[in-house]
Backbone:
């Protein structure tokens, strides 16, 4: 759908699809991250693995890079600039491996969680660091705002995962109400 809209030069629809994709991804990852302790207790019977539930918050939240990564892939494919794609996929992977080899002896396996988060975010948002890439995007996709929201949400989920059921429920309800209010406002501004 994004590729077809780019092909039709319908950048408003591309923006709308990316924002909705981002909205859904954020809602699902935040909800899972808030409740991952309880979800993992249902799925995993090995008690020694259950102590790592907080790490799953960081890993799950790192997948919020995906909507912008898909956008980048579609733009590069349409503009026949796929030669730049390895810089946005392969390089973050190499950075992740390198950082893991360097930092794991000092900080342990936990560092892999944080380097993975950072490299996924780099994979999704690195294109916006380069002027040539920014200029190829006709619409402003507000990457700084979204990136800031992802990072703040990750910290929020990381610290609330150990809260009691009531705090999690109220927090999740408030987040979903705000999210749907934002979506409703977005739909009013973009009726098609």
Residues:
């Amino acid at each position: 759908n994004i590729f077809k809209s780019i092909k039709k030069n319908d950048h408003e629809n591309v923006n709308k699809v990316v924002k909705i994709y981002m909205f859904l991804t954020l809602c699902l990852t935040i909800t899972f991250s808030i409740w991952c302790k309880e979800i993992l207790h249902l799925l995993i019977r090995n008690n020694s693995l259950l102590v790592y539930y907080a790490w799953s918050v960081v890993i799950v939240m790192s997948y919020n890079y995906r909507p912008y990564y898909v956008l980048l892939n579609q733009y590069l494919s349409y503009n026949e600039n796929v030669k730049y794609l390895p810089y946005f996929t392969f390089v973050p992977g190499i950075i992740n491996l390198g950082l893991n080899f360097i930092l794991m002896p000092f900080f342990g396996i936990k560092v892999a969680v944080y380097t993975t988060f950072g490299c996924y975010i780099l994979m999704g948002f690195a294109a916006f660091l380069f002027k040539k890439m920014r200029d190829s995007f006709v619409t402003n996709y507000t990457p700084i705002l979204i990136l800031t929201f992802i990072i703040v949400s990750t910290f929020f989920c990381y610290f609330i995962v150990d809260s009691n059921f009531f705090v999690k429920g109220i927090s999740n309800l408030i987040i979903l109400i705000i999210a749907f209010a934002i979506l409703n406002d977005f739909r009013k501004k973009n009726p098609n």
Q: What stands out?
A: Residues 34 and 161 are 5 Å apart (CA to CA). The chain has ten helices and no strands. The radius of gyration is 18 Å.
